[in-house]
Amino acid sequence: MPEEKSGLPLGSLLKTALRERSLSMRKLSELTAIDTATISRIANGKQPANARHLQRIAHALNLPVSQLFSAAGFEVGGPRQEMASDIRTVMDDIQEVLKSSNLFSEQYTTDQVEQELFRYEQYAQTEEGQRIIREDFRAKVNQVSGVGPFIEQLKQMHEQFCTDDITPDERTMLGSALLYFILSTDIIPDYVFPIGYLDDAIAVRLVLKRLSQLKKIEPPAI
Question: Is this model's pTM higher than 0.85 or not?
Answer without folding.
Answer: no
